[in-house]
Amino acid sequence: MTEKQAFSATGNQMIAEAMRQIDPDVMAAYPITPQTTIVENYAKYVANGQVHTEFVTVESEHSAMSACVGASAAGARVATATASQGLAYMWEELFIAAGMRLPIVMANANRALSAPINIHGDHSDVMGARDTGWIILFAETAQEAYDNTVISFRIAEDERVLLPVMTTLDGFITSHAMERCVMEDDATVKQFVGPYEAKYALLNTDDPIGAGMFAMGDCYMKSRLALREANDGSLPVIEEHGKKWAEVTGRPFDLVDAWEADDADYIVVVLGSAAGNVRHIARERRAEGKKVGVVRPRVYRPFPAQQTADACKGAKAIAVLDRADSIGAPVAPLAADTLSALY
User: Fold this and answer.
1) C-alpha to C-alpha distance for 189 and 151, rounded to whole angstroms
2) CB atoms closer than 10 angstroms to residue 63
3) What end-to-end distance do the CA atoms of the chain give, in Å?
């Protein structure tokens, strides 16, 4: 295998590059910190003729997702990006995208929600969207942000799934920090992702379909059950495409990354960029004779419950580090999912 040239890049740069290589038909986006440089860079690719994407500049994030819904329903390959208040502003449309089974790929630079105003990374925004029906991936590094984005298109557009996918990275910590990265060549990415032909497209007048119709209680609940089953059933498909990309790149893909968990007496469960810090502390504790392991779900929705429980099964004690709270509930979101998995 030819050695790839390493370079320095931010997580936002790597996501923009991944999307450039995939060259979706439509991108509708609105800038918001700390996601702005994703769509800013992509707009340059459009202006320079490096992609053939129809870039739709809109007046808000709600409009951005509305345009993505329309374009995807028409049969286009669609991508976008957002963060924080922007994701919150899309909330209504997130349910529509999932309920209509539209394979939109969206990058989210995880960021705190107001008030007070805070532009730095936490998971309040993405946790607010966790029950919408979207598949959600968490990147620890800029490299993973790139890999997750490429994989996301294969997952979303797989006929066994047909769901929108959110590929997330932690605001500023991963979105803006320079890291050592490598990138596959354009042809490799295009071959991996492949062309997209919508199975159900509103513009296919030879085989017309209905979309977004009114539903009474009985058929509405059947649609929600179908969405639940599609999301739950996507886990092996996510793993399948992740492993295929790992074969191409030589970089591993696991639904749950378990570091030194096999013999650990104490395990910390954590999402995203904080995992590196936790491993650093865990190494120090191991040097003192304390067996500490780190378990990091790379996929958050659907939650890999069995894999998380298996990774934690030998521990005497488990700590869960959340970067968001579920106010009014006994514990925060990741803790609730972990406890449920262990139970």
Assistant:
1) 10
2) 17
3) 44
Spell out where the chain has E strands: 7-9, 26-29, 54-57, 78-82, 105-110, 135-138, 165-170, 179-181, 256-259, 266-270, 292-297, 299-301, 317-321
Q: Please, which residues have CB within 8 angstroms of residue 307's CB and are 6 or more apart in sequence?
A: 254, 255, 256, 297
* DSSP structure string for 21-56: HH--SEEEE---TTTHHHHHHHHHHHHTTS---EEE
Distance in angstroms (rounded) separating the CA atoms of residues 6 and 11? 14
Q: Token pair of 116, please?
A: 């007070």
Question: What letter would DSSP give residue 229?
Answer: H
What digits encode the pLDDT tens for the residues 49-91?
A: 999 999 999 999 999 999 999 999 999 999 999 999 999 999 9
Spans in the chain with pLDDT lower than 70: 1-2
β-partners of residue 105 are 79, 165
Q: Record the pTM.
A: 0.97
What pLDDT was estimated at residue 4? 86
Give the integer Cα–Cα distance in Å for 303 and 202. Answer: 32
**Residue 210: per-residue pLDDT:** 87
Could you tell me how far CA 7 lies from the centroid of its own chain? 23
In angstroms, what is the C-alpha Rg of the chain?
20
